[in-house]
Design goal:
The protein is an alpha/beta fold. It has four helices and seven strands, in the order E-E-H-E-E-H-E-H-E-E-H.
Length: 142
C-alpha cells in the first residue's frame, strides 16, 4: 500500500528550521512534549531530525553552556546521533516497517526532495494490527 494513505502532512506536524536555535528547539519540544522533531532547510528540504539526546549531548560537551546561552547555538551546528533518512512519497508501507523499529516517525519527501510530512510509527503499528487481526484484509484507502 502506498504511504500517501498514512501521511501526516507537514502543515499538521511540528517541525523546526535548521537555522533555529537550541533554545527554540527545546521550548518547542517541551511545549508539544516530543522527544524528536524534523528539521527543514531554507529550501524546504528535509535536513535531519533533532532529538532530546542530541541536545543533551551538546550540553554535556559544551562547557559553561547555560540555558540562557542556548539561544546562541544553532540547531544545524548540533551533532545528530541518529540519522533518520527520509523516504519517497512513492514508497510502500511495507518498506517502512523496519525503519519504524528505531524511529518515532519516518520523514517523507516528494520527487524534488521537499519535506512533505511524516509517517508515524503508531500508524504503521495500527496498519499491521489491522492486517493481522482482520485475517489479511488491508485497510481500505479513502
Amino acid at each position: 500500500m502506498n504511504i500517501a494513505f498514512f501521511l501526516t502532512p507537514k502543515e499538521e506536524i511540528i517541525w523546526i528550521s535548521e537555522d533555529a536555535t537550541m533554545r527554540q528547539a527545546i521550548e518547542k519540544m517541551e511545549f508539544h512534549r516530543y522527544t524528536a522533531i524534523p528539521l527543514v532547510d531554507n529550501e524546504g528540504k528535509y535536513a535531519g531530525t533533532i532529538t532530546e539526546g542530541d541536545i543533551l549531548w551538546c550540553l554535556k560537551h559544551t562547557p559553561n553552556l547555560s540555558f540562557k546561552d542556548s539561544k546562541k547555538v544553532l540547531i544545524k551546528d548540533i551533532a545528530k546521533h541518529q540519522q533518520n533518512k527520509p523516504v519517497s512519497i512513492n514508497s510502500h508501507i511495507e518498506d517502512l516497517i523496519l525503519l519504524s523499529v528505531n524511529q518515532n516517525f519516518i520523514p517523507v519527501v516528494d520527487d524534488q526532495e521537499i519535506f512533505i510530512g511524516i509517517i508515524k510509527r503508531s500508524d504503521i503499528i495500527n496498519y499491521l494490527y489491522t492486517l493481522h487481526f482482520n485475517k489479511g484484509n488491508e485497510p481500505k484507502e479513502q
